[in-house]
Amino acid sequence: MDIDVKEIVKISHDLYKRQLVSGKAGNISVRSKLENKDIIAISPTLKSLKDLKEEEIVLVDLEGNVLTKGKPSSEVNLHLEIYKARNDVNAIVHTHSPYATGFAFSSKKIKRLEGFGKITTPFLEEIDYLPPGSIELAKNAAKAIGNEDVLILKHHGVLCVADQLKEAANLAEFVEDIAKTQFITHTLNLSEEI
Ligand SMILES: [Zn+2]
């Protein structure tokens, strides 16, 4: 399967436009099979997804060896460990989108609202804080994600996984939206005036 770099660029720009990533935060990747080997195309470190270019996308193998020029996202381990743990996942979107990340920095959990597939537990799965970019965070996330498609990284951000990049990006938007809805509902409930 060829790597659709155009799609990675398009979705990167889209995530920025949808205000799910800002500055140089946020990263995305796609897994492809090339001659039976897993190749991960990932956004580069220290670049904004806002104006990511095709030639800036970095290819790595599952062990993290860099196969092209450029330096992969500092969160590359997080992506690689998830791919190792989940054969069904071929795309990952990681954001620090404001509402969902607000929840991640608080003691509140994001409710698993309708539209989130089968509701088995009341809240989105989350893991305790470990330093961004660390192998400990990556391994913990890979262990905690189980069959979930969203993982909240406490005091950090959001991780969404899917078979297709477009799906993972839509999920990132959906998580941000339900966090926003939950926040608005909570705020309205504080007032008895309306
Ligand atoms: Zn991050």
Automatic annotation (TrEMBL):
Keywords: Lyase, Metal-binding. Residues 6-183 form the Class II aldolase/adducin N-terminal domain. GO terms for cellular component: cytosol. GO terms for molecular function: L-fuculose-phosphate aldolase activity; metal ion binding. Pfam families: Aldolase_II. It comes from the Archaea. The keyword Lyase applies. Its EC number is 4.1.2.17. GO terms for biological process: pentose catabolic process. Signal peptide: none annotated. The keyword Lyase applies. PANTHER family: 3-OXO-TETRONATE 4-PHOSPHATE DECARBOXYLASE-RELATED (PTHR22789:SF0), FUCULOSE PHOSPHATE ALDOLASE (PTHR22789). This is L-fuculose phosphate aldolase. It comes from Methanobrevibacter woesei.
